[in-house]
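hey so u asked for the seq, here:
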Amino acid sequence: MDYKTVFCALLYALWVISVNAQPWNTYIPCNKTTDCLLDFLCCRDAEGNLPWGDGGGLPDDGIIVGGTCWYGPSRPGTVCSEQCGCGDGYTCYRTVTGACCPPTTCWDAAEAAKDKAYWENCFNDPDCFFPPVANPGS
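ran it, structure tokens below
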């Protein structure tokens, strides 16, 4: 094996260790996920939500603007996106609500599937009404 290959393998191993150690979770300030520069980092506020409508909500959806770049999935009940998804057993989902444009949040995958099936059936039922604002999937 040549030195270049060994050097590249060493750099890769150090990168993997640093990602797993998550050393930057509190050091890189951001206002949106694109500020984080690396595709596997997501900008989150103190509660773990994505700021500035990254989860599909409106920029003024009440989520605190600004945060830090984090490695890892969104937690249950927090705002998520396609890039900044959820952990195992959860899915990034937006339910039907009585309010406009709620962000996507991490739902239990089974609960999200039930909710989605319910609303797909509801749209075909003229006696079905829209719900109040809630997120029972967290």
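Residues 35 and 53 are 14 Å apart (CA to CA). The chain has two helices and five strands.
lmk if thats what u needed
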